[in-house]
Amino acid sequence: MNLKQFLALEADCDPEALVDLRALDCVSEYDFHLMCPICHCPFVQPMRLQCDHVFCQECLSSAITTSRLADSDEFPCPSCRNPTSDVSTSVPRLLINMCDDIQVRCPFTVQGCQEIVPRGHVQSHVDKYCGYRLVPCPDGSCNKTTRKKDLHPDERCMHGLRQCSHCEEDIMEQDYEEHDRELCPSLEATCVDCETVVLHRDLKKHTETCPEVVSPCAASKYGCSIKVRRAEIATHEQHCPLIAMSPYFKAQNTRLDSLELTIRHLQQRNEIFEDGLANIRSTLVESARVGVTDRTSGRAAIDSEQARTEDSPEEFADRSSSVSSNATTYLLSLHESLRDEVGQLSHAITDLDARASMAIMNESLRIKEDMAHTNAAVNSVRMQVQWLMNPRLHHGTRAGFRTNTASTAGNEGARSQLTSSSAPGTSNTAGPSLGPLRPRRPSDSGREGTKL
Amino acid sequence: MFASKRLSKMQEHVPPGIAIAKSENLEEWQMDIKVLDDNPLYQNQTYRLKFTFGSKYPIEPPEVQFIECAASSDTPRPIPIHPHIYSNGIICLDLLSSAGWSPVQTVESVCMSIQSMLTANSRNERPPGDSDFVSYNRRRIRDIPFVYEDDNV
Predict the structure, then answer these.
(1) Chain B residues within an 8 Å CB radius of A37
(2) In the 3-class helix/strand/coil scheme, how is chain B assigned residue by residue?
(3) Are B103 and A41 within 8 A, CB to CB?
(4) Given CB atoms, is B142 within the 8 Å cutoff of chain A?
(5) From CA A444, how far away is CA A434, in angstroms rounded?
(6) What mean pLDDT value characterizes chain B?
(7) Which top CATH class is B2-135?
(8) What is the mean pLDDT of chain A?
(9) Staple partner for A201: which of A125, A185, A206, A402, CB 3.0–4.6 Å?
(10) Are A23 and B5 inside 8 Å of each other by CB?
């Protein structure tokens, strides 16, 4: 058929009643050759073009309507772009059968249908057999939908509310049967352990307290494997060693937790430090590399390792990477040892400093004392000299200048006598200052001697 | 709609050099593509393509263009230099126009076409009139009247 006939084809069918075969969920894997290149689903009503390419009818017609130039009789095949004017509905039966045989889930899976059917049978399954299909309520005034299996045989509306005779709850009529059978909280239920009959709504509370329920020991998290009836658990717990230990365990657990927290913090800090170290190392490697290239002449080896590598230039080039890492570690160790040495030196310096200042203080104390002594001695000597000088001065002014004519020789003799008998320091200080001013008389020497 | 099913099917297997960067919704996807051979122009680079799917995809073509992520970000994505790629990321490729598109094309096939377009290129230049186009173009990509004169690249 030509294009116009083909495009007219799809208007016939009713899209509402049909299952959308492309939306189905495929259970089995299928060959990708069975896949329409446009919609990537197994072919739905396949159509064949002149160039033997096959597409779904719907895909092909939408492709034709968009890509055909206005009202021309030809359009390019979506796969090979061959101009095509004829569409054939006859595709191999094999292809259709393989597509129809793919296992799919019923489209009403959400409503509860568990059915898996071949794709070819989905339409009839939905139309006739699936009880979970939503159908409009038979009562025209009700606009709700209901599952097909819930329909009342008399075609009555099942959406009215009905009060449960046991629990006084309002239940929609279509759910009433299920509620009455299983869900109603006022139903009676039997406890599986003690075989007491309780109400459905109390069952949960009962199982929490039922003395017959087998429950584990309270120390089960610490390794007690004993499980006994709840009535006997108290007697067990009195003797269970793990119960006695449990406060200890609990304390240990909290300690472990806090330790883990600390470890995590420390790990984070450690990572930060390692990052910093790696940065330092990389900068060191850079500088070491620069240093190594500078020393290609083979002199100035830092350590024996480098000295060896620098012996032969070829070998040196080969091992430059190892040298750089060695140099780095060497530099790092050098740096460390230097740091230690500097530390020791600074210690020694402070030590010496303290000792020197102590010694200086001791020495200066002694000197101060000595000076004080000397000062005192000097003062006493000065007083004596003054005392000695006073009568002399008096006498000198009284005697006047008569003695000026006395012979120099006698004067000299008296002075030498004075020098020998008195302290040398005293004569030195007093002698020269007094001697030339006032000549002495020979009789003075006797008085000097008695005083000292 | 089957188009969304078709798109989600692609996520299961992607060809080499192509990775899905973002596919949260079925309206816009971002793909990372790499040029696999050793073309020096595109070596060690990853580029990001943005696909915008219309409601009629795959019957109508998606809008495809390169987008740029800043070089300082975690995933630097420049816009490749190519005589058919404008510096705002718009690609001049007839496959992406309404006339050149075919509903058989997929996201993978478009990515692979762009990969091969980059691979075959040896010219380190932008299209003629790139700066004018970038500063004056305000049209949507599909409305730009490209002239596909060059069949070599």
Answers:
(1) 103-104
(2) CHHHHHHHHHCCCCCCCEEEEECCCCCEEEEEEECCCCCCCCCCCEEEEEEECCCCCCCCCCEEEEECECCCCCCCECCCCECCECCCCEECCHHHCCCCCCCCCCHHHHHHHHHHHHHCCCCCCCCCCHHHHHHHCCCCHHHCCCCCCCCCC
(3) no
(4) no
(5) 14
(6) 82
(7) alpha beta
(8) 77
(9) A185
(10) yes
Evaluate whether ipTM surpasses 0.95: no
Contact: B104, A59; criterion CB under 8 Å: no
Q: Which CATH architecture has domain A3-129?
A: 2-Layer Sandwich (3.30)
Domain residue spans of chain A: 3-129, 134-183, 188-239, 361-399+412-451
Q: Give the pLDDT score at B148.
A: 66
Tell me the backbone φ, ψ of residue A393, rounded to 5 degrees.
Answer: -65, -45
Q: How far lies A168's CA from each of A48, A184, A398, A445, in Å?
A: 64, 10, 154, 152
Residues of chain B contacting residue A24, judged by C-beta atoms under 8 Å apart = none
Nearest residue of chain A to residue B60 (CA atoms): A66
pLDDT band at A255 (very low <50, low <70, confident <90, very high): very high
A158 compared with A378, residue with greater pLDDT: A378
- Distance from the A23 Cα atom to the nearest Cα atom in chain B, whole angstroms: 7
DSSP A303: S
Average pLDDT over residues A202-227: 78
CA-based end-to-end distance of chain A: 165
pLDDT at A346 over 80: yes
Distance from CA of A24 to the nearest CA of B (A): 10
Residue of A nearest to B4 (CA): A39
**Class of the A134-183 domain?**
alpha beta
Q: Which residues of B are catalytic?
A: 92
Q: Specify the pLDDT at position A408.
A: 47
- Residue B98: closest CA among chain A residues belongs to which residue? A67
From B9, which residue of chain A is nearest by alpha-carbon distance? A40
Q: Please indicate whether, in this complex, the C-beta atoms of A39 and B2 are within 8 angstroms of each other.
A: yes
Residue to mutate among A24, A67, A79, A84, with most B CBs inside 10 A, is: A67
Q: Which range, of A227-236, A443-452, B37-46, averages the lowest pLDDT? A: A443-452
What would the pLDDT profile of A185-195 be if each residue is shown by its tens digit?
777 777 777 77
Fold designation for A188-239: Herpes Virus-1 (3.30.40)
CB proximity B100 to A under 8 Å: no
* Residue A184 in tokens: 């109603």
For A309-331, the pLDDT digits (tens) are 444 555 555 555 666 677 888 89
Residue A66: which of B6, B60, B106 has the nearest Cβ? B60
pLDDT in tens, A132-149: 887 777 777 777 777 777
pLDDT for A416 beyond 80: no
Model confidence at A429: pLDDT above 60: no
- Other CB atoms within 10 Å distance of the CB of residue A344: 10
Contact at CB, B104 and A78, closer than 8 angstroms: yes
Residues in A closer than 8 angstroms to B6, CB to CB, are: 39-41
Is B104 in contact with A38 (Cβ distance < 8 A)?
Answer: yes
For the segment A262-283, the average pLDDT, to the nearest whole number, is: 93
Q: Considering only the beta carbons, identify the residue of B2, B60, B104 that sits closest to A41.
A: B2
Q: Which residue has the higher pLDDT, A226 or B111?
A: B111
Q: C-alpha distances in angstroms, A177 versus A111, A186, A230, B83?
A: 18, 14, 37, 74
User: Does A426 have pLDDT greater than 70?
Assistant: no
Give residue B152's pLDDT.
55
Domain layout of chain B by residue ranges: 2-135
